[in-house]
Every structure is written in C-alpha cells, then in structure tokens.
C-alpha cells in the first residue's frame, strides 16, 4: 500500500439526528464512530443493508450532509468546520454519482447546457477538456450533447452524470448505488467504465452499495456497516473468502451466483446482454 497521504481519511465520525418535538423519541445515531481510509487510486466499497448508515456517511463525506463529531480530511486537508468559501473550493474535488441518473439531472437542460453551467461555476477546473472529448471518455458520442435527460436511456444518463463529475477533475468520486437503478446488462457497462476511469483519470472511488456482488467485482477493499458502525473491513477477496462477523456472512450468503469474478466485467462479453441504447 502507498505511503503517500490518503485521499480520504475519516476518523471516529458521528452523525446524530435530533427528534426533539416528536414526542419522547430518542435521537437517531445514523453514523456511530466510523473510521475509514481510501488511498490514491483505490476503489473502496462501503456495504450494508438499507438503514445501515452508509448513505449518511457518503453525504457527510461529500460535504452534502451533517456531521456531529469526528474528522474528515481530503488529501490531508480537514473539511469539517471550514468556511463556506473553502467548502465551495473543496466540493469540486469530491464529486458524487447518485443512484437515480435521471433524478440527478435537470430535466430542462440539454447535456451541453448542463456542462456549460458547470464550467461557468468552476472555470479554473473545467477548461482541460472539450465537451466532445469528455463524452468520449465515458463511451458516448458528441451528438448526445443536445439531448435532454428524458431522451437518454438509464445507462446513458448515468454516463452523463459520471462525465459531469469528471469535468471538475475530482480526487474522490463518491458513487452511491450507481448501478442499482439500471438493467443488469447496463450495470456491467457502468462498472467496467468505473474501472477504466480509475486507471485513466487516477480517481479514487468510494462505492456505496448493498450488493456485495458488485463490490466483489469492483473494489480493492471493503467496509461493512451495520446500525451505523463498521463491523468488519479488509481486502475484498480475503474478506469475502473468510468473513469473521455474522452480519458479513449473512450478506455473502445473499449474493446471487457466487461464481462471479472480476473477469465478468473486464471481458468484452462479460454481462453484456444488449446495447446501451434508449
């Protein structure tokens, strides 16, 4: 493992939601003392069932959610309790790809207009590439620049979301269930794209998922969350082969088709059941 400073370092993070005014309900501890590290160039998985706290952690990491206590640093720079000006600058270095690709795009904006708006907001980070070159990086053609989101398939819309994130040259990409809303054949294409971008763009990825089969094919390391806490962590293959926590074993038992391996993504024929077209 690299001795360089981590891209992301989370230490003892807590996120608590108050329920004052809602009867005598206790506060909700969504994230309870989580520590996590991502090295340069790593794809790290964060897995757990719905309600485990993984999305709350992801939003806090991306400066889009609350933090009650703890420390988050990006490439050695603390990002908790910073000024609004510094937060705006740091947000460009942490980009998010959400679960619903169409829901994350403005329905009134063409792909071109959406990219233009981003360029106007972040002129210092977005002049390195043209729109056509950017779409080519995510496997799309220039003619789609003038399409509205409803004219794109789910896979195409997710590729646009990834392109928008890459435009700002982030150090960290937070992918929150990026394939769960897509057809199985398209899921493989998006996962393959993320592997390619890790190599070509040197971007680190925090992949949020409830699906260990996705994590198995994509991630170098994995953290398992339950009830707001990390209950197990380790190298992906080692953890899946020899889990120590009962909850991890339960998740592994639910993986469909346990004979999957990374070649199912990297092979040109892996998981491809049809073209990614509208």
Describe the structure.
This protein has 278 residues and is an alpha/beta fold. The protein is 33% helix and 22% strand. It has 10 helices and 10 strands. It has helices spanning 54-61, 84-91, 111-121, 131-137, 154-167, 184-201, 212-218, 236-241, 246-253, 263-266, and strands at 8-17, 28-38, 43-47, 69-74, 77-78, 94-97, 172-176, 204-209, 221-226, 229-235. The protein has a 6-stranded mixed β-sheet with strand order 6-7-8-3-9-10, sandwiched between helices. A 4-stranded antiparallel β-sheet has the order 2-1-4-5, with helices on one face. Strand 4 and strand 5 (77-78) form a beta hairpin. The N and C termini lie far apart (42 Å).
- Element order: H for helix, E for strand: EEEHEEHEHHHEHEHEEHHH
How would you write the strand order of the largest sheet? 6-7-8-3-9-10
Q: What is the overall pLDDT average?
A: 86
- How many strands? 10
Query: What structural category arises from helix and sheet content?
Result: alpha/beta
Percent of residues in β-strands: 15-25%
Radius of gyration: 19 Å
Helical percentage: 25-40%
Give the overall form.
globular
Calculate the terminal CA-CA distance, rounded to whole Å: 42 Å
Uncertain runs are: 259-278
Number of helices: 10
Which sheet architecture does the biggest sheet show?
A: 6 strands, mixed
């Amino acid at each position: 493992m690299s001795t360089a400073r981590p891209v992301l370092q989370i230490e003892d993070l807590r996120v608590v939601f108050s329920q004052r005014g809602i009867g005598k309900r206790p506060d909700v501890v969504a994230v309870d003392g989580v520590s996590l590290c991502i090295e340069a160039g790593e794809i790290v998985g964060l897995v757990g069932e719905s309600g485990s706290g993984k999305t709350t952690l992801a939003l806090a990491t991306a400066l889009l959610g609350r933090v009650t206590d703890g420390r988050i640093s990006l490439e050695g720079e603390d990002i908790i309790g910073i000024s609004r000006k510094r937060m705006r600058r740091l947000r460009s270095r942490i980009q998010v790809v959400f679960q619903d690709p169409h829901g994350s795009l403005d329905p009134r904006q063409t792909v071109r207009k959406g990219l233009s708006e981003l360029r106007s907001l972040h002129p210092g980070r977005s002049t390195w590439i043209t729109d056509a070159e950017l779409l080519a990086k995510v496997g799309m053609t220039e003619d789609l620049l003038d399409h509205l989101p409803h004219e794109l398939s789910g896979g195409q819309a997710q590729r646009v979301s990834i392109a928008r994130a890459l435009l700002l040259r982030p150090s960290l990409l937070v992918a929150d269930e990026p394939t769960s809303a897509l057809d199985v054949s398209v899921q493989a294409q998006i996962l393959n794209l993320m592997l390619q971008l890790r190599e070509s763009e040197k971007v680190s990825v925090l992949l949020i998922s409830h699906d260990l089969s996705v994590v198995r094919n994509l991630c170098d390391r994995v953290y398992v969350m339950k009830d707001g806490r990390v209950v197990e962590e380790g190298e992906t293959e080692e953890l899946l082969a020899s889990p120590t926590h009962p909850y991890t074993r339960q998740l592994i038992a639910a993986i469909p088709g346990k004979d999957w391996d990374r070649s199912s993504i990297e092979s040109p024929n892996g998981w491809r059941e049809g073209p990614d077209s509208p």
